[in-house]
Amino acid sequence: MEALAFSHLTAVYPESDRPVLRDVSFSLEAGEFAVLCGATGCGKTTLLRFAKRELTPRCTHTGTVTFCGTAVEALEARTAAAQIGFVMQHPEQQIVTDRVWHELAFGLENLGVPQAVIRRRIAEIASYFGMEDWLTKDPASLSGGQKQILNLASVMIMQPALLLLDEPTAQLDPLAAADFLTTLQRLNRDFSVTILLAEHRLGAVIPIADRLLVMENGALTADGSPRSVLEKLPENAPVMAGMPAPVQLFRAVGGSGVCPLSVSDARRTLLPQFRAEIRTLPEPAPRPETEPALAFSGVYFRYQRRAADVLSDLTFSVQTGELYCLIGGNGAGKSTALALASGVLRAYAGTVRVFGKKIADYKQRSLHQGCVTLLPQDVQTVFLKNTVAEELAEIDRDYPAALKDFPFDLSAMLPMHPYDLSGGQQQIAALAKVMLTKPRLLLLDEPTKGLDAQSKKLLADVLYGLTERGVTLLVVTHDIEFAAEHADRCGFLSQGALISSDTPRRFFSENVFYTTAVSRMTRGKYDGAVTVADAVALCKLNGREER
Amino acid sequence: MRSFAEMNPAAVTVHLLLTACITIFCMEPVLLGISLCAAIAFYLMKNGTAHRSFHLFALGVPALFAVLNPLWNQHGSTVLFVINHRAYTAEALCYGGVTGIRLAAVLYWFRIFSEMTDSEKLFYLFRFLSPRIAMVLSMAIRNLTLYREQMKKIQQSQRALGLYREAHLIDDVRGGARVFSVLLTWALENGIITANSMSARGYGTGRRTSYVTFRWHLRDAVLLGISAILAAVSIRAVAAGAMHWEFYPVCDAPPHGLLWTAGIGAYLLLSLLPLIYEGKEMLTWKRLRSHI
Question: To the nearest 5 percent, what fractions of chain A are helix, strand and coil?
Answer without folding.
Answer: 40, 20, 40
